[in-house]
Design a protein that fits this description.
The chain has 528 residues and is of the alpha+beta class. Helix content is 32%, strand content 18%. The strands form four sheets. Strands 7, 8, 14, 15, 16, 17, 18 and 19 form an eight-stranded mixed β-sheet that branches. Strands 1, 2, 10, 11, 12, 13 and 20 form a seven-stranded mixed β-sheet that branches. It has a three-stranded antiparallel β-sheet with strand order 5-9-6.
Length: 528
């Protein structure tokens, strides 16, 4: 007998689970179908070095999630999810032994930055007043609503602060940073920071600067591992009468008379959906699963032309006897206790050269962000020990050997990453390291094929794929030309990272279409 549900979710990443949780809590009978043995997508925590040492392989920094409606609406604290907000939020280390730290407290940040550049310290305070105090709630409201067409967006941002915000869309990433900071060290931090979101120095990417700046001192660590976020969401789904089914790869989204009616699994199992199907996998895959012909030539071509990030990350994970001790702690003692630390670059030229080298298919001078979660949450490692990680930028395919070269040269690259880290933290050495694991761009795709070419934000952040254009203007409202088929994954607005916004926004679209009596109050876009 064929199983039947009110709604089905293709893919079990956090956005599918967010959407499913809202609808299950609304009384809908739903099932989330996940191809792998564990749901959660990029919210994954594994013991890849040694037993007892927890490593978040993808999402680690939860940025601004505490201001989302999701935690409140779904009462995730009741289901085992919590976060820690370290006092020392961001840091940047340089080869000359200097460093600075961005604190939760803006005045403490200013004091740290004054040692680098007094003008830039004042600028930081001014930007904090403008974007963190003045626009954070406004920016958040636009994340948790369907994206607005450009003309309507301009109307909403018609005030002085709003016009200032939109002016960043005329800038590249570097232009946005450089117009504010005069010292290369501050510039390097923000350029590495934006690069970690898969951004590069292309037109209009400056619009990310105010969004990121507004949250720069709001980074949180999920207690016990990133997986606990999606475990909490699963519990909400199950408590609402839904199911999360693993090892269930969807081969086809079935369509009859122009409406989505269910799915066929890889093993031939049919599952019916009487009211809706929501796809949490990437946009091009969704089109293939449902059938290109149902989308029409324009959208089918757009799906084929959808672009992936032009750089990825390669992570070295370590099990350590002692936490990393950076040489720069002699200059800035708080750096060792900082949550998100960038190192490896001293100038814009080095950052630019890094990405140019990646585009050529070669491993660049290593630079990126990392830290030690066990500093803040001792459950990440056994008593008295620590975990460490570093996420340098890297290409998906290497010029010599393609993506498979990550396997053949794993041992060589593992040592190279460790040696590069040792240059900044001398105790990252043989005596201190108990175990290591290099998580390569190829490994990213193996673990989560939704991250095509290791594009961990599920699509490039380019003008054609931002805001109202993500993934395409004709489907930016989370609905598709196929009746009852919705988009709830990170290739829709607002993109990747653990925000839950695509899932939340899709839940609102489904609730509106099905005239569901919502238990939650939908976020309304604010004026700026």
């Amino acid at each position: 007998m064929t199983e039947s549900y009110d709604g089905l979710f293709v893919g079990g990443g956090h956005n599918s689970l967010v959407c499913a949780a809202y609808l299950a809590k609304s009384g809908k009978k739903v099932a989330v179908l996940e191809r792998s043995s564990v749901a959660g997508g990029g919210c994954s925590t594994h013991e890849v070095t040694l037993p007892g040492f927890k490593h978040n392989l993808h999402s680690n920094y939860y940025v601004g999630l505490e201001r989302s409606p999701i935690l409140r609406d779904l009462e995730l604290h009741e289901y085992g999810f919590s976060m820690i907000f370290p006092e020392f939020q961001q840091g940047c280390i340089f080869s000359d032994g200097t460093a600075f730290v961005i604190h939760r407290d803006v005045e403490k940040t200013v004091k740290s930055l004054e040692r680098i550049n007094k003008n830039d310290a004042r600028t930081y305070r001014d930007l904090h007043v403008k974007f963190t105090e003045g626009m954070l709630d406004i920016i958040t409201s636009f994340m948790y609503c369907a994206p607005l067409p450009p003309e309507e967006l301009k109307e909403r941002f018609a005030g002085p602060l709003g016009r200032d915000f939109l002016s960043y869309a005329n800038l590249s990433m570097y232009e946005a940073v450089d117009q504010h900071f005069e010292d290369e060290k501050l510039r390097v931090l923000f350029k590495l920071f934006l690069g970690s979101f898969t951004l590069e120095n292309t037109p209009t990417t400056g619009i990310f600067f105010p969004r990121i700046f507004s949250r720069i001192a709001s980074f949180a660590l999920p207690v016990g591992g990133s997986v606990n976020f999606t475990r909490a969401l699963e519990r909400v789904v199950v408590r609402g009468g839904g199911k999360v089914v693993t090892n269930a790869e969807v081969r086809e989204i079935t369509v009859e008379s122009g409406d989505a009616t269910g799915v066929i699994l890889d093993d031939g199992t049919r599952i019916n959906a009487t009211e809706f199907v929501a796809s949490g996998v990437n946009w091009p895959l969704t089109v293939r699963l449902a059938g290109e012909d149902y989308f029409g030539g324009k959208l089918a071509r757009a799906a084929l032309e959808y672009q992936w990030a032009s750089h990825g990350l390669c992570t070295i994970h370590l099990a350590l006897k002692e936490a990393p001790d950076f040489a720069a702690a002699k200059y800035e003692p708080d750096i060792n206790k900082t949550f998100n630390i960038f190192w490896g670059a001293d100038s814009t030229d080095e950052v630019s050269e890094c990405f140019e080298t990646i585009h050529e298919g070669e491993l660049p001078k290593l630079m990126g962000n990392g830290g030690s979660n066990s500093h803040f949450d001792p459950t990440y490692s056994p008593d008295g020990t620590h975990v460490g990680y570093w996420w340098p930028f890297a290409p998906y395919e290497l010029k010599d050997g393609g993506a498979e070269a990550w396997d053949t040269r794993r041992e060589e690259y593992t040592q190279h990453f460790i040696d590069s880290w040792t240059h900044y933290a001398p105790n990252i050495n043989h005596d201190n390291i108990m175990g290591s694991y290099l998580y390569t761009p190829l490994d990213i795709v193996r673990m989560n094929p939704n991250f095509v070419r290791a594009s961990h934000h599920v699509g490039a952040y380019i003008p054609e794929q931002l805001g109202y254009n993500r993934p395409h203007p004709d489907v930016s409202d989370f609905r598709t030309p196929i009746g009852n088929l919705y988009l709830c994954g990170s290739s829709s607005h607002v993109g990747g990272a653990v925000t839950g916004a695509p899932g939340y926004n899709c839940a609102n679209a489904i609730a509106e279409d099905l005239e569901i009596d919502r238990f939650w109050a939908p976020v309304e876009t604010m004026m700026a």
